[in-house]
Amino acid sequence: MADSDSMLARYAQKRNFETTPEPAAHNQPPRRKKGAPSFVIQKHWASHLHYDFRLEADGVLLSWAVPKGPCFDPKVKRMAVHVEDHPVEYADFEGTIPAKQYGAGTVVIWDRGTWEPQADTQAGMESGKLVFQLHGEKLAGLWELVRTSKPGDRQDKWLLFKKRDEWARPLSDYDVVKALPDSVVTHPLGLLEDREPKVTAPSKADAALPELPAAASAPLPAKLEPQLATLAASLPSGGDWITETKFDGYRLLARIDGGDVRLFTRGGHDWAARFPVLVKELKALDVKGAWLDGEIVMLKDGLPDFSALQNAMDARTNRDIVYFLFDLMYLDGLDLKKVPLWARRAWLSALLENAGDHLRLSEAFDAPAAAVFEAASGLGLEGLMLKRRDAPYESGRSQSWLKAKARLRQELVVCGFTARGGKDGEIGSLLLGYYDDAGKLHDAGSVGTGWNSRTARDLWGRLAPLEIKSTPYDVTAARARRWSRRASGAERWVEPHLVAEIEFAEWTADGVVRQASFKGLRLDKPARAVVREGGKTSAPARPTAVKITHPERIVDASSAITKADLVHYYASVAERMLPHLKDRPIALVRAPSGISGELFFQKHAERTGLPRLTVHERALWPDHPPLLSVDTVEALLSAAQMNTVEFHTWNSTVERIERPDRVIFDLDPGDGVKWAHVQEAALLVQTLLGELELKAWLKTSGGKGLHVVVPLTPRLGYAAVKEFSQAFVRHLAKTIPQRFSATSGPANRIRKVYVDYLRNGVGQTTAAAFSARARPGMGVSMPVAWEQLPELRSGAQWNVQTAREYLSFQSVDPWADYWSHEQSLSNAIKRLK
Q1: Which of 183, 181, 193, 196 is nearest to 235 (CA)?
Q2: Transmembrane residues, as ranges (predicted)?
């Protein structure tokens, strides 16, 4: 290995530390901290995108530039060019290296952790072979670096590849570079080995019960808090997980102490007296003392049915209720909470072998989670539970249990109601809420469907005695309420004691549920325990499992983009794209034979329509066919799977379909217009809008031009908004005729920018942010900051293959304030006249 001082000298010679934010080299290498040496992989977008792979050794970072990044497939060997050593402080560097400096561009930390050399590092560098174990947030297992260059070669070239072990995966199954493109500083993941531990469970052929070395002798606990699951953002892509049904019922923990059986709800209430049949069968188990965890359900046509369970709970007899058991935390003097889950389940299975008909083991599925999730969705099940195979039992919420919901559903607090038809006696709607971590009650919107007249009367009887004079909310979704259709004064408030199970389509940007349906009251959970699942500021993300048919089909021959590339692109930007799509009527551009074949628009539901899209009967005129909207990740990916390339949206939402909440100016350059003139045109449009006291946001079109978008408070109708946009464009063309045209048609815009105002008419659409375009190269419409305008090279600067990599370097959303910015056209209309 070369002398470290000389290698750091090379590092210093290439950099001007008065200009670059990179850390300076040390005169003396720093003393390494105790513990395993660190590694870091920095994603570096300089003249080209590459990955800098760095291993800490002897006070420096040994460094290689890996153009394509690492790969878990042992068959794929990636070129790695050995470069100068870097100081250990460089492992913490994220930032932008200024132009004209060595390595100018943006750097993010793509992965980090520790590494274990399998032999002497210096000897390995000299011989040209390093084998090592990685413990990172994205990488794990054994890896190898092998030198391929010869003495005297201009570059010191090596190969980086994965060794065959339990972490190896074929590239066709998993591309870690595409699957996890973001910085681990801004999007921390935790160690991969903790998220997806590789634990070998006993084979099915081995009938012997496992040993329990982690069990501890202990008296039977009087109380035990249940373990709770975290809402999954996506299905686990690997690792050792046990997959079970997510039951649609009530959680109960069973405590057996000789002949005494207790059945505890999550709130700690003993319901043993309600279920004598279950108590009898639990008493009959061959056990002296135990704690078991499970869920009671009612089966209808073989599937759990929550409504049927509620009816059974209210009935005098509930002999048909089934208790599905999935965990065993204590058994005959042994505390099993630290025993791995697979071993606890093995003992639970043995315990239930001769149990009564109403006690059943929650079976695990021996199939990939994605396939099981699709099947569960098709059957109408609530979703799946995914549990780390080796995890201990942890009271409280944890990441080792995940819940993947096929249908968005959660408990919400009942905070008020309205009367059906304005008359007392039956509930018309329930007003909902949830608590945050600080104990404040948030408005969550309302639900007005999901019950019959009998239930409406029952709810009235429960809520009327709880009525209070003022709202119980600490935080009100003011915008949602102001635009709601509730009659003034119709809302009546109650003490927030009752909890309802609600199924809904999505959380809105205002933090309320949309398209909600009532499923029943939760008698087993206190209101104060109800929090919003999936975080305080973002909607719970649903798992993104989709089967791609004909993934190899070429969509764009000019760039060799396949159908799989397109679907994976939309999956990668779904979280960013959905706010621009949901609740808006949509037009889809579909390309069954690729973009060079026949393209067709779809705006309405048809016999050959798209699954999972929302169908809206409401329109602006009679007999108009139902409109479609893309409101979920599944709908977005389903549309892409059905050969949708472009997504175009209306300027209004379905809820207020007659009143646009934005106006769009499409800057379309004619023949002979240079790109600099398009940039200048955008600035002129922004300036004039500013003079009218209107703030605008910018995005590329994905084609030749740019889109300038002005958010509006939805007060005026389409006619007034279109009239304003037409007057605005005509004013531009009249004031600067050498630059702008207000008339469509190629002959009218030669060497001019046509500003299309027609997109602001009723039923007109514009390509949504992040939508791909059905043009050679498949550019995408990208939201950008106005400060980026001078740096743009075209309206199709990013495409399906490069857009997600660009986004992985962006730490700030340039449109973050767009959603909360309200402004009216009234004054602007007066000033244009």
Answers
A1: 196
A2: none
Residues ≥6 apart with Cβ < 8 Å to 686: 696, 698, 708, 786
- What is the tens place of the pLDDT at every residue in 96-113? 999 989 989 999 999 999
Question: Residue 75 is which amino acid?
Answer: K
Look at residue 501 and give its three-state secondary structure.
strand
pLDDT above 90: percentage of residues in the chain: 58
Name the token pair of 405.
Answer: 């919901």
Q: Report the 3 state secondary structure along 87-105.
A: EHHHHHCCEEECCCCCCCE
pLDDT band at 204 (very low <50, low <70, confident <90, very high): very low
For residues 553 and 564, what is the distance between their CA atoms, to the nearest angstrom?
A: 8
DSSP H helices in 75-196: 121-127, 176-179, 192-195
Integer CA distances (angstroms), 133 to 37, 53, 69, 192, in order: 11, 14, 17, 13
Strands (E), 420-461: 427-435, 441-447
* Residue carrying the six token digits 């965890």: 293
Distance CA 756, CA 758 (A): 6
The third-level CATH classification (topology) of the domain covering 411-529 is OB fold (Dihydrolipoamide Acetyltransferase, E2P) (2.40.50)
Name the nearest CA neighbour of 572 among 740, 330, 761, 780. Answer: 780
- Determine contact, residues 697/690, Cβ cutoff 8 Å: no
Helix (H, G, I), strand (E, B) or coil at 470: coil
Contact 242, 389 (CB under 8 A): yes
C-alpha distances (whole Å) from 530 to each of 358, 474, 533, 730 are 30, 15, 9, 54
Residues with catalytic roles = 246
The domain at 225-405 falls in which architecture? 2-Layer Sandwich (3.30)
Nearest to 663 by CA among 618, 726, 617, 621: 726
Chain centroid, CA 802 distance in Å: 20
Residue 499 burial (10 A CB sphere; 0-12, 13-18, 19+): buried
Q: How many residues does the chain have?
A: 833
Q: Which two tokens stand for residue 635?
A: 């709908």
Q: Can you say how many angstroms the Cα of residue 30 is from the centroid of all Cα atoms in its chain?
A: 41
Which value, to the nearest 10 degrees, does the dihedral of the CA atoms of residues 456, 459, 463, 465 take? 100
In single-letter form, the type of residue at position 292 comes to L
User: For 152-196, what is each residue's pLDDT tens digit?
Assistant: 899 999 999 999 988 998 887 788 998 899 999 988 888 998 877
* Inter-residue contact 442 to 414 (CB < 8 Å): no
Q: Which residues contact 671 (CB under 8 A, 6 or more apart)?
A: 746, 749, 750, 751
List, in order, residues 6 or more apart from 277 with CB less than 8 Å away: 318, 319, 321, 356, 358
Q: Which residue intervals of 738-816 are DSSP H helices? A: 803-808
- Read off the pLDDT of each residue in 806-817 and give the average, rounded to a whole number: 91
Inter-residue contact 682 to 789 (CB < 8 Å): yes
Helix (H) or strand (E) run with residue 410 in it:
strand 409-419
Distance CA 784, CA 637 (A): 24
Structural domain boundaries in the chain: 4-195, 225-405, 411-529, 554-649, 662-832
The CATH number of 662-832 is which of 3.30.70.100, 3.40.50.740, 3.90.920.10, 3.30.70.360? 3.90.920.10
Burial annotation 201-229 (CB, 10 A radius, 16+ → b, else e) = beeeeeeeebebeebeeeebeeebebbeb
In whole numbers, what is the pLDDT of the chain averaged over residues?
A: 87
DSSP-assigned beta bridge partners for residue 554: 562
How many CB atoms are located within 10 Å of the residue 294 CB?
26
